[in-house]
Amino acid sequence: MTKSSKRLPALHSTFLISLTILFFTTHGFHATAKSSIFSENSSPLSLGLKQEKLCHLHFYFHDIASRPNPTAIWVVRPPTSYKSPTLFGSVAMIDDALTIGPKRSSKLVGRGQGLYASASQSEDALLMSMNLAFTEGKFNGSSLTVLGRNAVVEAVREMPIIGGSGLFRFARGYAQAKTLTFNATTGDAVVEYNVFVFHY
After folding, report:
1. pTM for the whole thing?
2. Measured between alpha carbons, how far is 176 from 191 in angstroms, rounded to an integer?
3. Res 49: pLDDT
4. What is the pLDDT of residue 158?
């Protein structure tokens, strides 16, 4: 047997090992490349999204600042706010009840959770940033997000709905707020909300 014929099995084994390494390396690279895609187009149907519909929600927002169980508390009060007629710069955190009727004893349908801040030095205008977290009916566990200007002295204020979760994914619309009662001594208020929102 010649020396070259003795080298053939060794060369054949080396070739197979190299081919195997190349195969797994190449396939591993493609798998990694595919899983690291940052952005791609998707079909709405792939997320179960069908026809868009318009929904009207109506409820009452109870902003209670008085003791013993306040649902709105001031968490930031800059020193300059005490000299400001609008409490400019002050921030309140809220966990306000949303009810089906204007009385606090009415059926609870959710909570208004978030914050509002005095954002004007010359008028009573708030920056509202809150989630409307619903706990009743088919919207239980779903929420809408409100972010906008609330000029509380106006009869009806309008604020954008910028998104949502659960059944309100991809939501957009607006909320109208109308103050029913306000106690200047305690700071307690009841506000009627009409919310119009597009969602799938």
Report:
1. 0.78
2. 10
3. 79
4. 98
